[in-house]
Amino acid sequence: MRVFSASSRDFSDPAVMKSDRIRVPFRTLITARARGFASAAQWLIARALPSQCALCGNLSQALLCGGCDAQYWNEPRLRCATCALPLAASVMRREREDLRVHCAACLESPPAFNDTLALADYRAPLDTLAVELKFRARLAAGEAFARHLHALFEGCNLPVPDVIVPTPLSRARLTARGYNQAWAIARPLARMMRVHSDASMVARVRHTSAQSRLDRETRRRNVASAFAVSGDVRGKHIGVVDDVMTSGATLDALARTLKLSGARRVTNFVALRTPND
Ligand SMILES: [Zn+2]
Ligand SMILES: [Zn+2]
Fold first, then answer.
1. Nearest ligand to the C-alpha of residue 5?
2. Where is the Phosphoribosyltransferase domain positioned along the sequence (predicted)?
């Protein structure tokens, strides 16, 4: 059963409004402000009354109840160190001593990014949180993704990025949605990591068609010139945050653009990873 708590449309959250204010039309802002007052009341109600777990519907003041929180996060899967694709159990047995294992695709044709951290596969039940974040502005899911990505990063031996950026949306999509769901993860993650975050360092200059129906090579061509860098990334290690990584073509194109602009290293932080193309 899908249950949405009273705080599921928290448009008053500064992670959304502050970063995207300059790009959101006036009418949208007024609507969001009105919703902000409504959600302030909802915030009080949510804390005065019991709320429900986003996954199982049990009573819970937090986004997830204790049982779901313990059960679904940080699934013990060995992933490709570069693209976070889940690796077969045979690889796990053969190379379990080496934590930096790679999938065949990354060995054959390495992408432009250096590393990818992913929390879990994109599938039920955690895909519900990604949908809630992306289409219903449930920003608590962004915070939860950030908290778990931070814990995952703390357990790795990876260098700390100089700056954290969200995978940008095109202007049209940002206007339509009113917020960037990747920024809702990137901002709290940067705060937890004590790293500077910047939502305007990279822009999406070309809107690309839906990726899921395209083959790998077409996806690569499709996003090849989708991004533009406006900040100074020379010599920097950039942490790129996204909610869902599907083929990796978008993040590859973004990392390629960053490196062509002088970035030294790119690490992806993605909440959920689609297991196969
Ligand atoms: Zn639950
Ligand atoms: Zn890989």
1. 1
2. 187-270
